[in-house]
């Protein structure tokens, strides 16, 4: 299955990741310049939040495309693989324990 069939969604995801990349660069500069620890911690928190939101967007896209396709046209085995994969992602990403 081809991922990111929607060029608009791909462009938005890449824009988010590039903003995060900029935040990380700013964090490195803050450490190099020995900025105040609390300011660095606040920037780390902002970067973590941005990564979390990006992950939510990507997870939603995955469910709407890849998982939906497995359920629409996939075999029982493919559907089960998709569910198992989602449970693993939820376990790692959302702190939800496995089945």
Structure description:
The protein has 99 residues and is mainly alpha-helical. It has three helices and no strands. The protein has one domain: Metal-sensitive repressor, helix protomer (Methane Monooxygenase Hydroxylase, Chain G, domain 1, Up-down Bundle). The model has no long low-confidence stretch (mean pLDDT 87).
Question: Which helices and strands, and how do they pair?
Answer:
Blueprint lengths: L6 H26 L4 H37 L2 H18 L6
Helix pairs in contact: 1-2, 2-3
**Elements, N to C (H/E):** HHH
Radius of gyration: 18 Å
Work out the helix count. Answer: 3
What's the number of domains? 1
Helix-and-strand structural type: mainly alpha
Query: Any low-confidence stretches, pLDDT <50, length ≥5?
Result: none
Shape: elongated
The helix content is over 70%
- Give the strand tally: 0
Oligomeric state of the chains?
A: single chain
Task: From the structure above, extract its key features.
99 residues; mainly alpha
In brief:
With 99 residues, this protein is mainly alpha-helical. It has a single domain, classed as Methane Monooxygenase Hydroxylase, Chain G, domain 1.
């Amino acid at each position: 299955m081809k991922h990111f069939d929607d060029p608009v969604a791909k462009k938005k995801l890449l824009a988010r990741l590039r903003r995060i990349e900029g935040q990380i660069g700013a964090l490195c500069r803050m450490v190099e310049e020995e900025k105040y620890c609390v300011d660095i911690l606040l920037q780390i928190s902002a970067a973590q939040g941005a990564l979390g939101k990006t992950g939510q967007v990507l997870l939603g896209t995955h469910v709407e495309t890849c998982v939906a396709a497995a359920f629409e046209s996939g075999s029982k085995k493919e559907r089960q693989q998709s569910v198992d994969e989602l449970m693993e992602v939820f376990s790692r990403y959302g702190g939800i324990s496995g089945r």
